[in-house]
Amino acid sequence: MKREWFETSDRPIGWAVVGMGMGVWHARYVARSPGLKLGAVCDARPEGIEKRAAEFDGVARYTKIEEVLADDRVSGVSLVLPHDLHAPEAIRCLKAGRHVVLDKPFCLSVAEGRRMIAVARKERRLLSVFHNRRWDADFVAIRRVVDKGAIGKVRYLESRISGLSRMPKGAWRADRRRIGGLLFDWGAHLIDQALLLITSRPVAVYGFAQRDIPEEKGFDVEDRMQAVVRFEDGAVAIVAWATNSPAPMPRFVIEGERGGIRSEAHVHSTSKPKEGAVDLYLPGPKGAIKKQIPLARVDWSEYYRNIGAALRGKAKLAVRPEEALRCVAVAEAAYESARTGRVATLQRALFL
Q1: In the sheet where 224-231 sits, what is the strand order?
Q2: Per-residue pLDDT, 280
């Protein structure tokens, strides 16, 4: 996307957050990001706003997006909504002249994503996706090792989230039409991270879903979803989310040309990481030599700091919409494969 959306004023850029469930985290990050000013919060449930009234004292409070868009102090909007609303609401906000940040995923289809990017270009507005897991303490440590070439080119990668918990019954995440499936939720982060660690072009996806718990009224999302992604240079990535998994799985297993990486447990973003490390394995004269790589000191608010800097022309946009669209393409292909039982190919033009 051409960067034609620079803000020329020196004043902080007014920002609104729509959806004050998980959106509360977006509001906190915006509030402490230089160049941005949290000007409004919005939630269809008045009680959702009142619950946060003390924390966001002095911030305008709305219950409708129309009210947000009528506020000329708001230049940008973060949309933290059910996934099926991402595309239509983003397009509405872009056409109203607002910059837009979407919580992941970007949207639920490549076609939707292309429409959003086209509108953003036409309206000359910034469009990005909150891929905050790029700033996870374990992932940043792993990426630094890979980028330095310590293990050579990545040839094989496993990235999983697993556990016994399931998504809340009755919530929109239990509705396939609204969530799209597991790879459009947490899985979007796994795909994004894999595409950053393996730089070759992905060409094909084989996906399969499993359902172990009998069908329940109001819950029609799979218990496990896995995608095997094949890359042009022969590399392979497996990304999976298992919500009904009694056995702990490693968060990352990565094999390169000259070494490997293993990370047992997922470590969230934190400016003061807990004790822990990522295991690096390098070949030695008598077998693999294990080294421990300290967790990175990072923070998810780095995402919004980048938004503020990018809007001033002081930094490149960290998460471009074209990158987010690639994650959607992989997820969409995985579900196509799961439905047909055949490998799905990826459009070359999306990954050039």
Answers
A1: 287-294, 277-284, 260-263, 252-256, 154-162, 236-242, 224-231, 202-210, 344-345
A2: 96
Q: Which residue has the tokens 């968060």?
A: 251
CATH code of domain 13-130: 3.40.50.720
CA–CA dist 218, 294 (Å, integer): 43
Sheet containing 99-103: which strands, arranged edge to edge?
Answer: 60-62, 36-42, 13-18, 76-79, 99-103, 127-130
Largest pairwise CA distance in the chain: 69
User: Is 136-298+330-351 in the same CATH topology as 13-130?
Assistant: no
Report the alpha-carbon distance of residue 181 to residue 177 in Å, rounded.
8
Which whole number is the average pLDDT over 39-46? Answer: 92
Fold of 136-298+330-351: Dihydrodipicolinate Reductase; domain 2 (3.30.360)
Rounded Cα gap, residues 297 and 276, in angstroms: 12
According to DSSP, residue 187 is labeled H
Q: Which alpha helices (H) appear in 124-266, and where do they start and end?
A: 137-147, 176-179, 186-197
Q: Report the alpha-carbon distance of residue 64 to residue 25 in Å, rounded.
A: 20
> What average pLDDT is seen over the chain?
91
Domain boundaries, the chain: 13-130, 136-298+330-351
Residue 235: count other Cβ atoms within 10 Å of its Cβ. 21
What average pLDDT does range 299-304 have in this prediction? 94
